[in-house]
Amino acid sequence: MGRGSSNHTIILIFVVVLLAQLDAALVHGQATRVGFYSKTCPRVESIVRSTVQTHFRSNLTIAPGLLRMHFHDCFVHGCDASILIDGANTEKTAPPNSLLRGYEVIDDAKAKLEAACPGVVSCADILALAARDSVFVTKGSSWQVPTGRRDGRISLASDTSNLPGFRDSVDVQKQKFAEKGLDTKDLVALVGGHTIGTAACQFFRYRLYNFTTSGNDADPTIDPTFLPQLRALCPQNDDGTRRVGLDTGSQNRFDSSFFNNLRNSHGVLESDQKLWIDASTRTFVQRFLGVRGFSVEFGRSMVKMSNVDVKTGTEGEIRKICSAIN
Ligand code: HEM
Ligand SMILES: *[C@@H]1O[C@H](CO)[C@@H](O)[C@H](O)[C@H]1NC(C)=O
Ligand SMILES: *[C@@H]1O[C@H](CO)[C@@H](O)[C@H](O)[C@H]1NC(C)=O
Question: Where is the active site (predicted)?
Answer without folding.
Answer: 72 (proton acceptor)
